[in-house]
Amino acid sequence: MLTRRPLGLAMALVLSLVVAACSTSEGTPAASAPAPGGSAPAASPGGSAPAGSPGAGGANISGDLQVLARYGCEPAPCEPSGEGAADEIAYTRYNVFAEQYPDVTLDFTESDFDAQAFLTSVAAGNPADVVRMDRAIIGTYVAEGALEPLDQCISNMGIDMSQYRQPAVDAVTVDGSVYGIPEFYDSRIILVNDSVVEGAGLTSADIDTSDWDKLAQVNEQLLQKEGDTPSRIGFDPKLPEFLPLWAKANGADIISADGKTSQLEDPKVIEALTYANSLIAAHGSGAAFNDFKTNGPGGVDFFGPDNQFKADTLGAMPMEQWYLNVLANNTPDESISFQPFKDRQGNNISFSGGSTWVIPASADNKDAACEFMRVVTLPDTWFAAAKVRADTRAADGEAFTGVYTGNTLADERIFGELVTEESAGAYFPGVQLVQETADVAFSLPPVPAAEEFQRIWQGAVNAVVNDGADPTQALTQADQEAQDAIDSAQ
Prior knowledge:
It is a single chain. This protein is an alpha/beta fold. The longest helix has 19 residues. The chain folds into two domains: about 260 residues, D-Maltodextrin-Binding Protein, domain 2, CATH 3.40.190; about 210 residues, Periplasmic binding protein-like II (D-Maltodextrin-Binding Protein, domain 2). The chain is about 40% helix and about 15% strand. Helix 1 crosses helix 14. The chain has 19 helices and 16 strands. It has a six-stranded mixed beta sheet. The chain has a five-stranded mixed beta sheet with strand order 9-10-11-8-12.
């Protein structure tokens, strides 16, 4: 593990302007930045909490705090290895906590969450004190008894749960108890390649997921193929990952609201998979579709300047909002329009995921862990980090499309003050649509054996897409396997 590192000079200057000027929404004054050279600053009137002082809920926040996450790299800019990992968004927020609580020694694992390593540490009685993990898998570790319910933490530290987006809170709530504090928040909109759509005599508005018959026709108009080999994808339904979104659009959920009953054999789920797969089958075989999508022109440069929009090898697709930043910095002049994903009644919907902070049940320093989670997810802390990124991107002449958090108040400030038409360029309308649809997103509930459940349903979808399996048979079998896994985990 690595011990807490001081802020670099450039970061210190930024935080001294950004962080020290504002206070947290919970009333705890924000920290001033450390002096160049790394020594802790002296407490100033209304400044950072002096050593040994109580935290927001009166607990003494001190001692060692082991954090299962990456601290980041400095100075900015950094090369992130994943959302929120090894970049200025991570270490700026961690340093806000570190400067408020100089009596806490922060140790970072500098690694991402690994299920086997985590459970091994829990079994040995020496897990990290606070852990960053994907909300989609939290149910597994709640069922294992590995995580601390946070009801007392939330009460003691005065954490305002209403500031977090409700789908993110729902994804970490089991039997009425909260087990995680939401961090990042992703949602999905549809990206439309204007040149391809207009070339087919269509408009962006014709990409409408509420009308499945029309969308099937539009898909046929947009795609190109030679025999069973596609040369351009029309509408990519993004299977297997987006099956829950197609099911929701058809009025169904793949899992019950309490996360304990598989609903994969629901006729509406089967109908949704059958339809979404038909969009792929129109291109030829599923194997050929996926091979072209991965290895064809544009697919091989998904994150580069010769991506599928530039290469005109795609008409439209639903996608997570983080891809807007990729496109804005690689193909800033590409003409792309944006549409919401709609259910069959015409209502805007979205599918959300993201990370969360949790405390292992056998953690040693739960008070400091709780306060850490509170501080690093506060609106002012998020804003400070987002401003560092925005300023860095501006200095480098790069686009900034925002930082998407699980905190509604943070996003209001970030997208109200930092993200502009100038910073996001042609992708600003997409940024605005993401914000408009974020609160109509749904999340899967915490599921015991969450990883196994995901493996089972995605395997069934892949069998349909790639091997031509019957959707009804594949999902019926998957439903039984999933239920057995859930029951065993409980």
